[in-house]
Amino acid sequence: MSLAASLAGELEALFPDALITDRAGCLVYGYDNSRRQAMPDAVVFPQRHEQVVALVQACLRERTPLIARGRGTNTTGATVPVAGGVVASFERMNRILRIDTANRFAVVEPGVLNGDLQAALKPLGFFWPPDPTSSPYCSIGGNLACNSAGPRAVKYGSPRENTLGLRAVAGTGEEFRAGYYTSKGATGYDLTRLLIGAEGTLALITEATLKLTPLAPAKRVLRATYADIESAAAAVSRIMAQPVTPCALEFLDDEALRLARRHAGEIIPVAGAMLLIEVDGETDFLPAAVDAVARAAAGDGLLEWRAAADAAEVEQLWAARKALSPALRSIAPMKINEDVVVPVSRLPELIGGLKRISHKYAIPIVNFGHAGNGNIHVNLLYRPEDPAQAAAAPDCLAAVFDLVLALDGTLSGEHGIGLVKREFLPRALDPVTLALMQRIKAQFDPAGILNPGKLLPDGGTAHA
Amino acid sequence: MSLAASLAGELEALFPDALITDRAGCLVYGYDNSRRQAMPDAVVFPQRHEQVVALVQACLRERTPLIARGRGTNTTGATVPVAGGVVASFERMNRILRIDTANRFAVVEPGVLNGDLQAALKPLGFFWPPDPTSSPYCSIGGNLACNSAGPRAVKYGSPRENTLGLRAVAGTGEEFRAGYYTSKGATGYDLTRLLIGAEGTLALITEATLKLTPLAPAKRVLRATYADIESAAAAVSRIMAQPVTPCALEFLDDEALRLARRHAGEIIPVAGAMLLIEVDGETDFLPAAVDAVARAAAGDGLLEWRAAADAAEVEQLWAARKALSPALRSIAPMKINEDVVVPVSRLPELIGGLKRISHKYAIPIVNFGHAGNGNIHVNLLYRPEDPAQAAAAPDCLAAVFDLVLALDGTLSGEHGIGLVKREFLPRALDPVTLALMQRIKAQFDPAGILNPGKLLPDGGTAHA
């Protein structure tokens, strides 16, 4: 497929010096961290809201797919242009338009990097809670599109809890605003949260008003090691049942520990499982808060409880945790990385069930993640070159999802659905819920030009 | 209008001992705290989800309006059956189905009173943050329908930030679930938040999974009095710009103080304005937190800063604040009670502008409310029996809304739109946003039977 000549001309006029149509250039905007790939017909780099309006209208006229792209760090193929068309990369629309601490909000363009925003906010004593592991490289627009969270969500919430309002362009080419500049609002339906997590299938976000939170003055990083995974999972449950909420409560299973130790050395223990815990708060109160979490962490199977001695040790612990995902990629380049979520009290059953599934299908599974939210990154280290594993992988993955759903969990905590999980959506959602989502999609994007083939099972393929 | 005979028969079969059709009985389900009134043709009292499904399907067959009702405490006429039809009062569907502290959620039926849930949670060390002033009398279902918040929202958020999932029945008669049992989820569009604040126009909520928050161990109540309103408003801005977020930051203007003093005696000072501030946290840290707020509260115009001496004084202060709305009702039975919201830094401009509007239209205006969210209850004490005031009231109200919108605010912070503000919605929302809301409404309720004449300007009148 290639672009209609009229559209190609319009893109040239709209995006002087901000248009790629050659094959080599297009290639690098056709993949993301899912290892899926497809060729777009063109890549454009909008810098202003008005350009985005004109872009959507131009694509709509030619019924050409239009895929919004942040920085391509997502793991589900949500930005892969499976039906060709135009990729709109927001990397050049990256201004922080306003930081207003008196009103606790910031207004940003979608291409602002999460880490750049945090760096701008820190000297002012504020932060924006969502902090994906890819924070230095991922964009706010992508965070919003996928409802991406990160470790701090256990205490501070995901983008849906931390966004006040949006400016956007629907698939109809119409521009609109949703939400407020205030921390409260009850003026009509909540379109802000509807767009967050919609993976660019309803509208393109061109501006976001983000709710800011004061930075806690002090933080302590702790690690608790356990004899086995079940003891660690039970400790997570106890920690979340008491009043002091950690600002991170990360879990690593034995395999993840082995891997992290290889990266970080002896700071990572040999154990059945480890919790990496961060507690923040007022300086004077922090010791009492740490004590409260320590009491809850104690119990059967606890091997060691240890506070990071200094900033260097904190750095090392987090670096080891953050290295896990790339490290697994190097072991198993085609690993399947899920981010299932279950109620925290069901974590022992989840972890036990995953062991059985791994054994049954003879596919190694490594688990780590945001245990305080019950959000576990389940890594199926399958090697497609092994015919037995290749044959077993689909059933193995289906068994993982069936387990999660049986435990009152859901398919994704923070990665979204994208390309790779859409066929599983009907297992997680009842038919009426799914049909309502389809009908909502049809209102925002009746021609199905926005990110076709994503999120919804038969989600609006463009009629090009 | 009266019910079709077939529908009347169905209701009798569906709701034995739970159906009212006589005039006297219907009358008391035809009004709410808006002082608007209309007659329903029948009132039913569902107790089970399946009854609600059958009820919606029966009403749909006859194209008969169906109005969900909690306890009628809302101030916008959101439950007034302006097109007749059936009122479904959820007062008997009031079981707390599950409290799960390990997973920090509670599952409730919509008729559970907010206060009853709080009472059940307190011994377990948890609470559900939304706490409207009417908490002992209002239902969770009503709180969700209107996104009702209350003082604690300044620190802990509104229902949209504190609800994990819903079970509901759309206007199509189809039942569905939205959301999760987990604190994180990225599996499709966010229908949970879409239903919250939709005032029963999209679906009837039959079950809610609410996110619980640990109770802070200690709390301190403080009052700061100021020489004038502008000084108090500036203090609110300073308090919200520093890191310690109070769990209540209430504002009373001079008129509200006079009124509160009449109710509560000398504990309420004579002053230009007062802030009632609550700070919660760990026992040991509380003095430092109070100091931080005190530093921010200090400044031009501060007359007195005082901590409540004991529980009795706390009780008195809050009783005086909570008595304001009913007290104003006794002075001006037909008062117009708005709950506008502006960014907190714009509060001085709002309060100044309201003074000018009050003077221009010769209608007394009393202001109090949740200043930490910029959410002010603006009470127009107009007397319809005064011809000049009656003539001026509509323009006066329009001027209030124009002021609020010019300050980047919105029409409602927590009361919703209902019957009384729907004509103003096009001032607050751009035409595309409004059209998208209409199209969403049409998907959930194509026949327009759910709460016709509410929220949206021409929001789906039933075609009966």
UniProtKB/TrEMBL annotation, chains A, B:
Short name of one Pfam family: FAD_binding_4
Record-linked InterPro entries: FAD-bd_oxidored_4_C (IPR004113), FAD-bd_PCMH (IPR016166), FAD-bd_PCMH-like_sf (IPR036318), FAD-bd_PCMH_sub2 (IPR016169), FAD-linked_Oxase-like_C (IPR016164), FAD-linked_OxidoTrans_Type4 (IPR051914), Oxid_FAD_bind_N (IPR006094), Vanillyl_alc_oxidase_C-sub2 (IPR016171)
Cofactor requirement: FAD
Lineage: Bacteria, Pseudomonadati, Pseudomonadota, Gammaproteobacteria, Lysobacterales
This protein's name: D-lactate dehydrogenase
Gene3D superfamilies given in the database record: 3.30.465.10, 3.30.70.2740, Vanillyl-alcohol Oxidase, Chain A, domain 4
Top-level taxon: Bacteria
GO molecular function list: FAD binding; oxidoreductase activity
Protein's organism: Tahibacter aquaticus
Keyword set, alphabetical order: FAD, Flavoprotein, Oxidoreductase
Membership in a protein family: Belongs to the FAD-binding oxidoreductase/transferase type 4 family.
Chain ranges of the FAD-binding PCMH-type domain: 36-215
